[in-house]
TrEMBL record:
Keywords, ordered alphabetically: Cobalamin biosynthesis, Glycosyltransferase, Transferase
Keyword Transcription regulation: no
Source organism phylogeny: Bacteria, Pseudomonadati, Pseudomonadota, Gammaproteobacteria, Enterobacterales
InterPro entries, alphabetized: Nict_dMeBzImd_PRibTrfase (IPR003200), Nict_dMeBzImd_PRibTrfase_bact (IPR017846), Nict_dMeBzImd_PRibTrfase_N (IPR023195), Nict_dMeBzImd_PRibTrfase_sf (IPR036087)
Enzyme category, top tier: transferase
GO BP terms: cobalamin biosynthetic process
GO molecular function terms listed in the Swiss-Prot or TrEMBL record: nicotinate-nucleotide-dimethylbenzimidazole phosphoribosyltransferase activity
UniProt xrefs under PANTHER family: NICOTINATE-NUCLEOTIDE--DIMETHYLBENZIMIDAZOLE PHOSPHORIBOSYLTRANSFERASE
Pathway assignment: Nucleoside biosynthesis; alpha-ribazole biosynthesis; alpha-ribazole from 5,6-dimethylbenzimidazole: step 1/2
Family that this chain belongs to: Belongs to the CobT family.
The name this protein goes by in its record: Nicotinate-nucleotide--dimethylbenzimidazole phosphoribosyltransferase
EC number(s) given by UniProt: 2.4.2.21
Organism: Xenorhabdus miraniensis
Highest taxon above the source species: Bacteria
Amino acid sequence: MIQEDEINIYLKKIKPIDHMAKRRIMLKEANSLKISGSLGKLDIIAKQVLAIKEKIEPHNFKKTIIVMAGDHGVASECVSVFKSNVTSKLLLKISEGKAPINAIANTIGAQLIPVDMGVDNFIDSHPNIINMKLGNSTNNISKGPAMDRDKVIKGILSGIKLISSDIIINSDILAVGEIGIGNTTSASAITSLLCNISPDETVGQGTGISIDTQKRKKEIVRKSLIINRINFDDPIDVLAKLGGYEIVGVVGVILGAAINKIPIVVDGFISSVAALLAYKMSQTVSEYMIISHLSAEPGHKYIIRELRKSPLLDLGMRLGQASGAAFTLPLIESACAVYLKSATIIESKIKTEDKNI
């Protein structure tokens, strides 16, 4: 109970974006060569980011990508193309700089932070992996709760405190994503519950499963919703019954970003499920959140609808690893630079008589 009280103390630290900062950004745009609304969705996001971080230096934009890793007991039901040991193998490749997300991070000049929230196979102490392990794997949600409530609370607090750490706190913007075999099953179950949508609408092909496996996966999600007595109004209970260690970690990271006033770009389906749970803990967190892209997973659109957000990209991606969020970072950085570096109308000597109207 003491730890749960600690979460509530942190939630009270989440404050709305400064209204005057928003006005200053709009005034800057009005006096700039940049035409209002000319960047489309990027206009909205650039204003959001600059209202949070007014002193961003566009040529020294500190970008950090966080990848949470965790295994799922439900993977034993063969709901994925891969076995659960693939999670730890991918995590190791990320730590060695050889995974797809490393290629993206290196290209865009972002710091990459892989975190072990609970992979099944033991990973020896590695200088490039942060150990926040809650266990080796969650329990099988089709047979009972994924984890106990204390682990959820511990994981959320760990995620919050990670953002306050020296390696992340000075970031101008964050991107968060995850890896974990079986996690689309967990995310689909949570989506069906929170959005009141049938598993027929929320369960996709994940890692590329067959139609028969997809049908079985839908039944597993239905079973998990029936067998677990879930308190719909309690995000911690939802995570305890249906969640994953890495999903818990992402919730904490999103809350931590809002607490520390850092804009955070959320990856695809699974991370957006975590975002919705964070939103249910504090609606103000939405002001710091950016949805990077619309995943190919069918349940994602329902989560985005609940968040009342619009994804920046729609490329049919489902790679995971925070890849979609990472791809949007240079777009956001460039949009912010347009606001900060464009000449003013006065500097450009544009006068009233230069207009046709």
